[in-house]
Design goal:
It is a single chain. The protein is built from 22 helices and six strands. The protein is mostly helical. The protein has a two-stranded antiparallel ribbon with strand order 1-2. α1 crosses α5. The longest helix is centred in the N-terminal third of the chain and has 37 residues. The N terminus and C terminus are likely disordered. The protein binds arginine. The site of arginine has 10 residues, from α8. The site of arginine (ARG) has 10 residues, from α8.
């Protein structure tokens, strides 16, 4: 179908020539009412093309679907539809191959694509805007972009979760100190620590998936704010763009940016989790702890101190987690006082979103790489995990198991701990007392302590191993689903398929040349 675009465009050019060539990219969209051209300073402040050109694929896909809908509604003829589709395809090819030489003096991506179209096919290009507005256009473009961005974020998250689950399985039985208040608390395993982050990441994946369900609505056909006077099937239009359904209220549709907020929130929370992981690893990789060592290729050196191995990747993750909170609150503040419906403030929604998507693309692979090359110093962790301060609770548990009320046991053991500290001895060296038996003291054993934490979700090595195995199975399923989602979404978010399938449909039925007529 794509091959025939040459013919279409020959037709388009002939039509254009009849109307006389004009450099349309130099005109602007709303000149009619104004006697003076826009001031340079206005343009510098107002124009968004420098960043919203990022939406050009989505804008073309939206225009393809709209042209087809206009054809079906007999607003344009089948032949005109073909010409518009062919020219849009050419613009897409231009974008993908050479890129655009310049944007003329166009304000934004929507006016640019339309002007580019006009350069190829002349005034027919102006018919494409029948019944639509840049307000429903930008809402649609952004929604298409966001759905793809959410899928990408989710897949990055699955990647990091997988690396952690692999570590968890391998280190399910590797004891390490567990902390509360960053004070040694109870023995856990390194695998259990990994699985804590897997749990957070799985919730993040779930958040991305559920937000995708809410986002799956097409604003196109909402017009500027009141809907469109054209008799067109918005359900079909939504499906043509790969959406599940059309939006329900035109006023809301052109001004709603909930998906953008939810995306920023989900990424901010993801980074909140990754920032905690980063902080743990920064601490664990210090000389003082020495639990882990960062892989050389994901660490940096110091220009002055030759012994340094710096955790820059982790620090940047932590830093960006803070900055993302700013992106999120910035967007929330942008939206909070806007009267219905569209306001130009909404133009400022895009840059934080683009920055966030770019950040994910850089940060998540770096983090996955760092984690997969992480060296775990099992012996150091084992030694630290064997300290009295971590195992004292085990003695209280042992006493409680033979009938001493736990509160009483706690009191006795804590006094014993203070005594041992005063004498600079370990609890074992101090030996049994009236209340603490030799048998209770045998509880001061790392492996024994670990093996007793058998509750579901606990740190007993067999539990951790089972949890890691289950997580890996879940991750494989999520990956399968990702594959499926990617394949399905291609028609929605990637213009070539949207166009190709659209053209196929046009040729099959809706745009038979006899049927379509301009009213
Ligand atoms: N560049 C605009 C934006 O990003 C497109 C919509 C313009 N609509 C308008 N009524 N001025 O929001």
């Amino acid at each position: 179908m794509i091959d025939s675009s040459d013919n279409r465009n020959a037709l388009g050019r002939a039509l254009f020539d009849r109307h006389g060539a004009k450099k349309m990219t130099q005109t602007n969209l709303w000149g009619g009412r104004f006697q003076k051209p826009p001031a340079e300073a206005l343009k510098r402040f107002n124009d968004s093309i420098s960043f919203d050109i990022n939406l050009v694929e989505e804008d073309i896909a939206g225009s393809v679907a709209w042209a087809q809908a206009l054809g079906r509604a007999h607003v344009i003829t089948a032949a005109e539809t073909e010409i518009i589709l062919g020219a849009l395809h050419e613009i897409q090819i231009e974008h993908r191959t050479s890129g655009f030489a310049d944007f003329g003096n166009q304000e934004d991506v929507h006016s640019f694509v339309e002007a580019r179209l006009a350069e190829t096919i002349g005034p027919l290009a102006g018919r494409l805007h029948t019944g639509r507005s840049r307000n429903d256009q930008v809402a649609t473009d952004l929604r298409l972009w966001l759905c793809q961005a959410v899928r990408t974020a989710r897949n990055h998250t699955v990647d990091v979760a997988e690396v952690l689950a692999i570590h968890a399985q391998a280190e399910a039985g590797t004891p390490m100190p567990g902390y509360t208040h960053l004070q040694q608390a109870e023995v856990i395993t390194f695998g259990h620590w990994c699985m804590a982050y897997v749990a957070m990441l799985m919730r993040d994946v779930d958040r991305f998936d559920s937000l995708l369900k809410r986002a799956d609505e097409c604003p196109l056909g909402s017009g500027a704010l009141a809907g469109t006077p054209l008799d067109l099937d918005r359900h079909r239009l939504a499906r043509a763009l790969g959406f599940d359904r059309p939006t329900e209220n035109s006023l809301d549709a052109v001004s709603d940016r909930d998906t953008a907020v939810e995306y920023l929130f989900a990424v901010t929370l993801l980074f909140g989790h990754m920032s905690r992981l980063a902080e743990d690893l920064i601490i664990y990789s210090t000389q003082e702890f020495g639990f882990v060592e960062l892989p050389d290729e994901y660490a940096t050196g110091s220009s002055r101190m030759p012994q340094k191995k710096n955790p820059d990747v982790l620090e940047l993750v932590r830093g960006h987690a803070g900055r993302l909170i700013g992106e999120l609150t910035g967007l929330l503040a942008l939206l909070k006082g806007l009267p219905l419906a569209y306001n130009k403030d909404l133009q400022l929604d895009k840059e934080p979103l683009f920055r966030t998507a770019a950040l994910l693309n850089d940060a998540m692979p770096a983090l996955a790489g760092l984690l997969s090359g992480l060296k775990v110093h099992q012996e150091v962790m084992y030694e630290k995990a064997s300290s009295d301060s971590l195992l004292a609770t085990e003695i209280s548990d042992s006493m409680a198991a033979r009938g001493v009320p736990f509160r009483e046991a706690h009191e006795i053991v804590s006094k014993r701990v203070a005594e041992a500290a005063k004498l600079k001895m370990s609890l074992r060296e101090l030996g049994p007392s009236v209340a603490i038996t030799e048998r209770d003291l045998r509880a001061l054993d790392v492996d024994l302590a670990l093996s007793r934490k058998t509750s579901f979700g606990g740190s007993a090595p067999w539990r951790v191993r089972a949890a890691a195995k289950e997580a890996k199975t879940k991750i494989a399923v999520l990956r399968g689903a990702a594959q499926l989602v990617q394949d399905e979404s291609r028609t929605a978010a990637q213009a070539p398929e949207a166009m190709r399938s659209g053209m196929d449909r046009a040729d099959e039925n809706s745009f038979s040349t006899e049927g379509g007529q301009t009213p």
